[in-house]
Amino acid sequence: MQNAWELPTPLVDPVADEAIQGVLRTVGSPGSFFTAAERLEFAKHARFARGLTETPSSLPPVVASAVARIAVEAMTSRSEHVAAWEQDGRDVLAYIELVAVVSVICSIDSYRVGVGAPLDVLPDPMPGDPVPVIDDRAKKANSWVPTVGVALAPTALSALPNESAMKKPLGIAFYLDDKVVHQYDVEPGRELSRPQMELVASRTSWLNECFF
Question: Is the pTM of this model over 0.85?
Fold first, then answer.
């Protein structure tokens, strides 16, 4: 019998664990614009900015600022921030890669914290130089960065196919299927009832200023 003062054993979801390990390997691999070591520095600085670790990275100021803003207060992002990135001599597509890496590590860490598990150890960086993989159809339309088609949450990373693909396993592991989500008169058959699920979703969306 567990004592009242003992912490519960963290929940283990094999599907989520497999997805997380695969995504972390991708984070630790060369991207389109950054080396594996640079991508891992983004992850480390995101953890520092969120107060999860005590060791900051040695990233250049404009990069460190971008990582911290996306990790902690993404809702404050403005077109001026992307412009400042480009004025620093950086490719706007590289900004998309940074967003991709920071968003997945924040998702993974939030999941671990939520279930009471320790943070994952980041992998060692894989050798190799960045190799740009860019969708030629991407262009700026109603967004600050190029996207394939209209800029929405599902297309935010679409200019860089590898980065867009990186987040998909987490979406499958962490979220209900879209068909379940949008059948508002059907109970999902999970621990939360439909009204409870909608309350959590709307409250979280409001707190994070996540509107589309």
Answer: yes
